[in-house]
Amino acid sequence: MMTLQRSDTGSTVRLTKEIASSGEGKIYKTTESGLIAKIYHKVTPDKVNKLQIMVGNPPSDPTVASGHISIAWPKCLIKDTSDPRQEYVGFLMPEICDAKTLINVYNPKLRRKNAPGVDWYYLHSIAQNVAYIVQFIHAKGYVIGDIKPENLLVNSRGYVSIIDTDSFQIVDPRSRRVYRCPVGSPEYTPREMFHVDFTAKIALSYKIDLD
Asked: Do 28 and 18 form a contact (C-beta atoms < 8 A)?
């Protein structure tokens, strides 16, 4: 496993175990307590700029007073110290433990199997907590973009956490440049956006903004 360095403290971080993989990158457990790492397959200057803005401008968390993390926001960037170029390869974020994906709670068949104690009161509380998360993200001027059940985790107390936050649409508070959401799920995408190349659309929008 590669040895990494945190952008905030300069301390060393080691990856210990791969726990998930996608087309964009891989997720690893780390030697940092309570933090996991996302390592990208490919890192672009735009992605690094976006992450730096996110690290410096997190949204408020609606359940921080309860000791729960509702928004798994990037904590710091990490670079590969073995690479002579010393380039950033990903970031650290909070690990959400002991939680199920939202579909295991709201789908009746899966709920009976995986969360048999969940009743209507519990479901309404979960819905309210999802709404709070969206409200706090929007209050910062950010947009979730790809809101799907797989990115919402629910624990035994009905608290909800949203993950995959690096895909959010965010705004640089200084330049007002918009970093748009590059991904989408068919079930949660407007019909007029089907077959649209998100990457190309982002590049075109940025060019129009500059013009």
From this structure: yes
Name every residue whose Cβ is closer than 8 Å to that of residue 192 and which is 6 or more positions away in sequence. none
| C-alpha distance across the termini of the chain, in Å | 44
Contact 55, 74 (CB under 8 A): yes
Residue showing tokens 């309570």: 34
Distance CA 147, CA 151 (A): 7
Percent residues over pLDDT 70 in the chain: 86
Q: What is the CA radius of gyration of the chain?
A: 18
Mind listing the pLDDT tens digit for each residue in 46-85?
A: 999 999 999 999 999 999 999 999 999 999 999 998 887 8
- Indicate the CATH number for domain 3-210: 3.30.200.20
